[in-house]
Amino acid sequence: IDALCDRALDAPIGSARLEDRVRAGDRVTLIVSDATRDEPRSAFVAAVRARLPAVRLTLAIATGTHGRAGGLDALGLDARTVGAAAVIDHDGHDDAALVTVGTTARGTPVQVHRACVDTDLVIATGVIRAHYFAGFGAGAKAIFPGLASSRAARINHLWKRDPAARAGAVDDNPCRLDLEEAARLAAPRSFLLDGVADRHDQVRAVVAGDLDAAFRAGAAIAAPWLTATARRSRCIVVADRAPVTRSLYQASKCVAAVAPWLVDGGRIVVVAPCDDGLGPLDVVNRGIYELGLVPRLPVHHEIVLVSSLASTTVAPCYARWAGSLADAIDGAEELLVVPLASKVIAHALA
User: Fold this and answer.
1) Would you call 116 helix, strand, or coil by DSSP?
2) Is the alpha carbon torsion for 246, 231, 134, 49 positive or negative?
3) Among 56, 77, 152, 341, which is least packed by CB within 10 angstroms?
């Protein structure tokens, strides 16, 4: 990953080199993801610090609507890697830290942490993977919704109901285009350093440069790695690695990813430990299921959760509890099994 970062930074796409974008003493905000993403943050931070040794660096943890990250240890970062950088653990509910910089053409208020504004350059990092309504993760998402107010982020997320807001879609995706406009308003001086992951979640490429142009180059690399084609099925079993499976909030991405493969009246079985619980119930049931999953699923469907949670814990959520995988698939005449399901861009055979 270190060599990939260096090659990308040596030849940025649509931008001058990172070290030519700032001067000694400038303020730079470097954004990294929170623990809901498995990413090489240490390599990103080290690569940037090597290129910009004389700037005043702020490390901002993009938590979006997830809540505070709770420190650097869970992110694979230590004091030596971070150095003298100030650290911001973003809280989208902390009005005192937020500033409003405008409104997008689609009506989303652009309210972000002041670290996006009170700086000479914003560097967004992340890993480009499939995302069920933003097309792909990473890119401008590090800025918005990564450092956005929770309210503003949820307004943007309402675009998940649009049929064009789908995995693998970028230039015709209203959710993606809206968040990219918001990010440009929030951080007009920006730079991107993103990994590109394959279906096994291995970072096999890195892109750097202009926030939008470099991201699109990375998405073009990722698309053929992530796209899969299969016949529609009446019973689909999905699973993934942590951190996606730590909560139903995150594991719901697996349901959205395989929705194109489910026949009407079919069942999706989610195998996820959910060691962190379901997540906020109102968000899981309304923001994710009603707004995000129902528009993608056939009219008649069933979601079953096989987890470490008790039946009484699962009862209030949109999924039916099952004590074992055998119970969950009982009666199924056929199975489509999709490991690493959240990483897939699903195409259904006619």
Assistant:
1) helix
2) positive
3) 56
Taking the CA atoms of residue 147, residue 153, residue 156 and residue 162 in that order, the dihedral angle to the nearest 10 degrees is 120
Q: Taking the model in full, what pTM does it have? A: 0.90
- Taking the C-alpha atoms of residue 74 and residue 4, their distance in angstroms, rounded to an integer, is 24
Residues 240, 242, 245, 251, CA torsion sign: negative
Residue 72 has pLDDT above 90, yes or no: no
Give the closest residue to 252 by CA, choosing from 283, 231, 230. Answer: 283
DSSP code string of 223-291: HHHHEEEE--EEEEEE---TTGGG-HHHHHHHHHHHGGGEEEEEEEEEE---TT-S--HHIIIIIIIII
Residues in Cβ contact with 277 at an 8 Å cutoff, skipping those fewer than 6 apart: 247, 248, 309, 313
Please, is 349 exposed, middle or buried when counting C-beta atoms within 10 Å of its C-beta (0-12, 13-18, 19+)?
A: exposed
Amino acid at position 204, single letter: R
Tens-digit pLDDT profile for residues 199-224: 999 999 999 999 999 999 999 999 99
In angstroms, what CA-CA distances link 259 with 68, 123, 212, 255, 294? 31, 34, 28, 6, 9
**Please, are residues 228 and 198 in contact by the beta-carbon 8 Å criterion?**
no
Find the largest Cα–Cα distance for the chain.
67
Instruction: Give the pLDDT confidence of 99-138 residue by residue, as tens digits.
Output: 999 999 999 999 999 999 999 999 999 999 999 999 999 9
In 3-state terms, what secondary structure has residue 178? helix
